């Protein structure tokens, strides 16, 4: 069965982890040796949101949005268990485990390697990541695990609404900062660019194609044209992101590794909690996998923007949020493999009920 699946994979999908690493390296090298490229791209930032990155994210999630119709969204909202898992893990567990894990590593395990003041900044960056569950990239992880696209959309939409209310208070509580200012403009623009616009384009396209060509043509011919676009969009996004942070990463190799350790542990922990909870609650794999992915990954656009506004571009907090991006993609790809490799667990549980 596995060999048959592998035969159906494109060269991009078979060696996705390798392409991801190569694109990250290419981005770092561009930032170091061809800085004019990120400088020019940086001129297209609005409210600290990169428009070139937004366009590439559209390419990533647009194919998934094509599969969504509003009737499926309504039916997804009627299945509250997956939403309860997502919201509880993201807002009751995740920010606090991130704070605990990062504090332990930066103040205890790495005490002799990182100055105290810098350790505080790294904890701050980790908290900014932990309090912001993923919104855009989770569509990619859901797509790669054959997650339910309508349910993933509902999960993302609810998290976007909760972020508006809880992000600033949670960050303020954990960091003891009373004047945390979340850039609402950045948050609203990110939501519009990464969720609302791709959804509208997907719904309009789906409606027009089905009306003119029929549902069979849409599902068997039209959708097939977009099979590789999601992966290509992901790879190009990585090149852009890491071109902006190339010099910073090269100048702090040891600290990059030290920051990556607690962030990686946190990612595995949160995925394990959400995914196993979904399993024991007898949720289907198409809901369980995205539920684990939403919590494990982070809304890095918001985290970086808030860090810059609170602590500055050159701060340790901002470096920690950038390392979050560095760690997240290869780790999430590994978790995608874990989710895809355990699909049979959920199928057996469904058959036994």
Helicity level: over 70%
Largest sheet properties: 2 strands, antiparallel
Instruction: Return the CATH topology.
Output: Na+/H+ antiporter like fold
What structural class do the secondary elements suggest? mainly alpha
Distance between the termini: 24 Å
Q: How is the largest sheet built, in terms of strand order?
A: 1-2
Count of folded domains: 1
CATH architecture: Up-down Bundle
Mean pLDDT comes to 81
Order of helices and strands: HHHHEEHHHHHHHHHHHHHHH
Task: Please describe the topology of this protein.
Blueprint: H1 2-7, H2 11-14, H3 16-33, H4 36-42, E1 45-46, E2 49-50, H5 51-65, H6 70-77, H7 80-109, H8 116-130, H9 138-144, H10 149-175, H11 184-213, H12 215-222, H13 229-244, H14 246-251, H15 253-280, H16 285-296, H17 300-311, H18 316-341, H19 343-352
Antiparallel strand pairs: 1-2
Helix pairs in contact: 3-13, 3-18, 5-11, 5-13, 6-10, 7-8, 7-10, 7-15, 7-16, 8-17, 8-18, 9-10, 9-16, 10-11, 10-16, 11-12, 15-16, 15-18, 16-18, 17-18
């Amino acid at each position: 069965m596995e060999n048959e699946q592998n035969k159906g994979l494109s060269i991009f999908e078979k060696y996705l982890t390798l392409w991801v690493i190569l694109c990250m390296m290419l981005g770092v090298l561009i930032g170091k040796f061809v800085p004019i490229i990120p400088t020019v791209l940086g001129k297209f930032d609005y409210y600290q949101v990169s428009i070139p990155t937004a366009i590439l994210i559209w390419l990533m999630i647009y194919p998934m949005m094509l599969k969504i119709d509003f009737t499926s969204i309504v039916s997804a909202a009627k299945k509250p268990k997956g939403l309860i898992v997502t919201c509880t893990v993201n807002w009751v567990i995740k920010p606090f485990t991130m704070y605990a894990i990062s504090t332990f590593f930066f103040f205890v395990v790495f005490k002799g390697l990182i100055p105290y003041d810098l350790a505080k900044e790294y904890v701050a960056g980790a908290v900014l990541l932990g309090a912001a569950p993923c919104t855009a990239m989770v569509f990619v992880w859901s797509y790669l695990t054959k997650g339910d696209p309508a349910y993933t959309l509902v999960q993302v939409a609810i998290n976007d609404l909760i972020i508006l209310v809880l992000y600033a208070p949670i960050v303020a509580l954990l960091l003891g900062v009373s004047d945390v200012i979340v850039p609402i403009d950045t948050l609203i623009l990110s939501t519009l660019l990464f969720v609302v616009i791709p959804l509208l384009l997907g719904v309009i396209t789906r409606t027009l194609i089905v009306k003119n060509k029929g549902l069979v043509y849409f599902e068997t011919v039209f959708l097939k044209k977009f099979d590789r676009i999601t992966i290509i969009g992901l790879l190009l996004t990585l090149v852009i992101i890491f071109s902006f942070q190339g010099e910073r990463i090269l100048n702090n190799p040891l600290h990059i590794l030290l920051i990556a350790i607690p962030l990686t542990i946190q990612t595995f922990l949160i995925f394990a909690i959400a995914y196993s909870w979904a399993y024991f609650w007898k949720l289907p794999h198409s809901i369980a996998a995205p539920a684990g992915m939403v919590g494990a990954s982070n809304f890095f656009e918001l985290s970086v923007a808030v860090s810059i506004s609170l602590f500055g571009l050159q701060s340790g907090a901002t470096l920690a949020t950038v390392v979050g991006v560095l760690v997240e993609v290869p780790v999430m790809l590994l978790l995608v493999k874990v989710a895809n490799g355990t699909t049979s667990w959920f199928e057996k549980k469904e058959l036994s009920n």
